[in-house]
Specification:
- The chain is α+β, with helices and mostly antiparallel strands.
- The protein has one domain: Alpha-Beta Plaits (2-Layer Sandwich).
- Helices cover 37% and strands 27% of the residues.
- Strand 3 and strand 4 form a beta hairpin.
- Helix 1 packs across helix 4.
- The protein is globular and about 50 Å long.
- The two termini are 18 Å apart.
Length: 172
């Protein structure tokens, strides 16, 4: 059975191809994600690959049947921004040019995924949120230093049905 993380890694790879530029993928809770992003910021090789980024938040619950798994997922699409931008500038630079096109490519990629059952005529139930505050205030997290200013499109309660595709590997 293919893991949910692998399914989303493939969807983000397809999203990158549609968008025409690299989009990084990460999964985990915020502490993990912010820690890795902070490490990547200090690496000349990884620094330029941090954004744009799609994050799949865990934990998530999988409801198993004999042939499918259903779940609600929370994801963020992130891009770095400048603190000095006004909301109008961030709307133009971050949302119109980057985040909305990535979101559209992401939804298209879900629709094309062979791992997803298409119960919804390629309309996937979700809550869509554009969150401007992190670009202006940054992330307020006392536990970890996170210095990036980011604009975020939040996807909440994305309801998907995943196929249970059996994977047979070599056994020891």
């Amino acid at each position: 059975m293919k893991s949910i993380n692998e399914v989303f890694r493939d969807i983000v790879s397809s999203t990158s191809a549609i968008y025409g530029k690299n989009i990084s993928f990460m999964f985990g809770d915020w502490d993990y994600v912010s820690g890795i992003l902070t490490e990547w910021a200090e690496s000349p090789k990884m620094s330029k690959l941090r954004f744009p980024l799609i994050v799949l938040y865990s934990p998530y619950e999988e409801h198993h049947t004999s042939k499918t798994r259903t779940s609600d997922f929370d994801l963020d699409i992130m891009v770095d921004t400048l603190k000095e931008y006004t909301n109008e500038e961030r709307e133009e630079v971050s949302y119109k040019r980057i985040l909305r096109p990535i979101y559209e490519a992401f939804i298209e990629s879900i629709g094309k995924s062979p791992d997803i059952i298409h119960n919804y005529n390629d309309e996937f139930p979700l809550i869509y949120i554009e969150d401007f505050r992190y670009g202006r205030k940054g992330i307020e997290d006392n536990n970890k230093p996170f210095k990036d200013f980011i604009d975020v499109t939040k996807i909440r309660n994305l309801k998907l049905t995943i196929k249970n595709i059996k994977c047979y590997g070599d056994r020891i």
